[in-house]
Design brief:
This protein is α+β, with helices and mostly antiparallel strands. It has helices at 3-22, 78-94, 122-125, 128-144, 214-226, 245-258, 261-265, 330-335, 368-373, 423-426; strands at residues 27-43, 46-64, 67-73, 149-168, 173-190, 196-198, 201-205, 237-243, 286-289, 293-294, 297-298, 314-319, 322-323, 344-345, 353-354, 358-361, 377-385, 395-406, 409-422, 430-433, 443-444, 448-456. The chain starts with a helix and ends with a strand. The relative contact order is 0.13. The model has no long low-confidence stretch (mean pLDDT 96). InterPro entries: Metalloprtase-TldD/E_C, Metalloprtase-TldD/E_cen_dom, Metalloprtase-TldD/E_N, PmbA, TldD/PmbA_N, TldD/PmbA_sf.
């Protein structure tokens, strides 16, 4: 991205701030975003959709004492910026005062100075024809894998790059760029009765040099799809449940939601009042880290500063089963009489929320095969459906499908079942944790086994 653009965006942020302060704001914060996206979908070998788009926008948050409001615009003209500032100040004047409102204190601002390797030019340098060809190859490999695969949801290839600048009236200026690329295939398989199943697999990175082989990804998508054929229900029972990494990360993700400072302040979480208490088994350590760099590449949740200009950091939420920290931004930290954990997340408009960096359950020592190997009868979950988590009570109930375990082996596919329990018990009943922690997104967890869940079926 040329320096000229960077200068223009920084100047825009600076101009918006000074305009807001001159117009009567006591404090202000501007965020300027610019991004490009590309996506191609190939289905049955033919290009079905091709999209390329660019966007840029500016967001403004103003304070008049302890009144606050925010506005945003994708129009960078002088008239539009004037309306943006005027709109924010007009709104701020009619909102109620909030004793917790305000930018962080000046000494709290900062950012990671070292290069976190979040941006790679090669994402944009790959010709579109090459990206489409990777999508085509991935789908073709899935289709060729087995005669039962006759149809496809398609193969796709996506890239995106973004550039963000955050500036405020207390002297903070920060910016970073990020890049992303990834591809996948979603084959559809038929059994002899005409029943259909689908699944998918993918590869993604910040740089094209780290993407996996398209044929291998297509074949893995095919294997995952074929494993679903012939799925049946099982009888209602209590049994051990093993969660694949893709599903385990969602269950562990509920720890972040339960430790969210906003939910804690509202007393709307089963972690309320639990700091220093045992909330999980001794084998459980859960970490949020916005600074991770894997193999010379920044993690999907890595960034130099959070949505308010505080440096990102490593926060241990649960250490050996003990709840050590809540996660918060400046606003919720003030409400809880604590310090921000650098987890402010910021869109263009609205007040900052609370978001994770790279969030994960520390790996164990067992292979997935070992975890499954000593189960006489149980469930291996590969997909969940619905939104059946109550963070106030901890109640958990989700539709599920996967594979039934018999005598330590994956025996046959199952579907149309529900798994249920309570997170307060589930976190204490994680009896085995895998060594297969791989980040395919900003959150990750290895394979894990939970005892005594209810499986509702036939």
């Amino acid at each position: 991205m040329p320096t000229q653009t960077t200068t223009n965006l920084r100047q825009l942020a600076s101009d918006v701030l000074s305009h807001a302060l001159k117009a009567g704001a006591t404090d202000a914060e501007a965020v300027v975003y610019e991004g490009d996206e590309f996506s191609a979908l190939v289905r049955l070998g033919q290009v079905e959709t091709l999209k390329e788009s660019g966007s840029r926008a500016v967001g403004l948050r103003v304070f008049i004492g302890q009144r606050t409001a925010s506005t945003s615009s994708s129009d960078f003209s002088n008239d539009s910026i004037a309306r943006l500032v005027e709109g924010a100040l007009t709104l701020a004047k009619i909102t109620s005062e909030d004793p917790f409102a305000g930018l962080p204190e000046a000494h709290e601002f900062g950012q990671i100075e070292e290069d976190q390797h979040l941006y790679f030019d090669d994402v944009n340098e790959m010709p579109p024809a090459e990206r489409i060809e990777i999508a085509r190859r991935t789908e073709a490999a899935a289709m060729a894998y087995d005669a039962r695969i006759q149809n496809s949801g398609g193969g796709d290839f996506d890239t995106s790059t973004s550039h963000k600048i955050l500036m405020n009236s207390r002297g903070f200026t920060g910016e970073y760029r990020r890049s992303y690329c990834g591809f996948s295939a979603a084959p559809i398989a038929h059994d002899e009765k005409g029943n259909m199943q689908r699944n998918y697999w993918f590869s993604n990175s910040r740089t094209v040099t780290k993407l996996e082989n398209p044929e291998e990804i297509g074949q893995e998508a095919a294997r995952r799809t074929l494993k679903r054929l012939g799925a049946r229900q099982v009888k209602t029972q209590k049994a051990p449940v093993v969660f694949s990494p893709e599903i385990a990360r969602g269950i562990i993700g509920n720890i972040f939601d339960a430790a969210n400072g906003d939910a804690i302040y509202r007393n709307a979480s089963f972690f309320s009042g639990m700091l220093g208490e045992e909330v999980a088994g001794e084998n459980i350590t859960v970490i949020d880290d916005g600074t991770i760099i894997h193999d010379g590449i920044g993690g999907f949740g890595t960034r130099p500063f959070d949505g308010e200009g505080l440096p990102t950091r490593r926060t241990v939420l649960v250490e050996r089963g003990i709840l050590k920290n809540y996660v918060s931004n400046t606003y919720t930290a003030r409400k809880l009489n604590m310090k921000s954990t650098g987890n402010a997340s910021r869109g263009l408009a609205g007040n900052p929320g609370i978001g994770a960096g790279n969030f994960f359950l520390e790996a164990g020592t067992l292979t997935p095969e070992q975890i499954i190997g000593d189960i006489q009868s149980g469930l291996y979950v590969t997909e969940t459906m619905g939104f059946g988590v109550n963070l106030v009570t901890g109640d958990y109930s989700q539709g599920a499908s996967g594979l039934w375990i018999e005598n330590g082996e994956l025996a046959y596919p199952v579907e149309e079942i529900t798994i249920a329990g309570n997170l307060k018990d589930m976190y204490k009943n994680i009896v085995a944790i895998g060594n297969d922690l791989i980040f395919r997104g900003a959150s990750a967890a290895p394979t894990m086994r939970i005892e005594g869940m209810t499986i509702a079926g036939a």
